[in-house]
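Changelog-linked ticket: nicotinamide-adenine-dinucleotide example.
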Amino acid sequence: MKLLVTGGAGFIGSNFVHYILKTYPDYEVINLDALTYAGNLENLKELEGNPRHRFVKGDICDADLVDKLAKEVDIIVHFAAESHVDRSILDSAAFVRTNVIGTHTLLEAAKKAGNLRFHHVSTDEVFGSLGPQDAPFSEVTPYDPRSPYSASKAGSDHLVRAYFHTHNLPVTISNCSNNYGPYHFPEKLIPLVITNLMEGKKIPVYGDGLQVRDWLHVEDHCRAIDTIIHKGTIGETYCVGGNGEKTNIEIVKTILGLLCRDESWIEYVEDRKGHDKRYAINFDKIKNELGFEPQITFEQGIEKTVAWFQANESWWKNIKSGDYEKYYQKQYKK
Ligand code: NAD
Ligand code: TYD
């Protein structure tokens, strides 16, 4: 199989590219990534010289480019997105452009290439926010996005489904909960907490810290997508979760414990605007129909993740100091 992976220099996309090339020795990947602030070629360093991986620096909104690449592959697995809620609160233009227009450009390319298989990677945030007693999100939960990020992802999900119903495009969609693991960009909660503590900085906890997220190790997310692209039913959506509901303050305290620090490192700061209170996922459908279940518990995964950040200090220090931009500009100067 030859895959066009979009956003494969980002957090989940790069984990997926590594996972696919390791799992399937005869598969090939074209990796299309614009290398925004979140894209980092250091995530792909191990693949330098690998003939089964071709990196293309480019924008998913560039119709000529994606039309050309779509003709070369059997499936598009679409990760590329603007992904950080806080950035979408400050300025949402790039979110609408990449997440909505970029997805539309790819869908058109898939249609023109001859009904090319298309897997769309989405988020549980499209379903909105749960109260403490509400049942977890599932495939039948009505959409209710509440941040510019989740609204733009919801728009992209609707377009993907519309191309299935209108044009018979062979699509699948996954809506996954919060991921964590290697190559996680250190503006998100878990890598921010780990790296701040390693740098001797305090941890900013928004509001009361009692918001709940369901955390899934990125390797399990990659396995779920693998399962869907090989065994999923065309036109279907699959919710993916980790059975790992935790409050933010629980996450922070777990990491403080692993790094032998006390709670004086916590700094409660102003709350995020429109902060979603709780996300939780019922993943019975993918479990019962496709046999997928997460394999990494939160306790195992968070320990492994802290160890990864300890062993890869130069990776995140380059990002925090801005050096990673110099690295990729040098490598892929036009
Ligand atoms: P990320 O921000 O780490 O990576 C995004 C990648 O997309 C970057 O490499 C960036 O350079 C690239 N990109 C951005 N705009 C582009 C454009 N116009 N053209 C080409 N490439 C572009 O994001 P992530 O956390 O790896 O998330 C990947 C996908 O998974 C997103 O679609 C996100 O909505 C979804 N998702 C993320 C999570 C999570 O917890 N991180 C959970 C569920 C779903
Ligand atoms: P984040 O990692 O940005 O993911 P998302 O908003 O997509 O769920 O944030 C996870 C949770 O952690 C969210 O409730 C916001 C909170 N948070 C903090 O309390 N402090 C921080 O510095 C960050 C980045 C997030």
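Closing comment: Example verified and attached. The longest strand covers residues 117-123. Residues 85, 178, 188-189, 192, 204-206, 211, 213, 248, 272 surround thymidine-5'-diphosphate (ligand 2) (CB under 6 Å).
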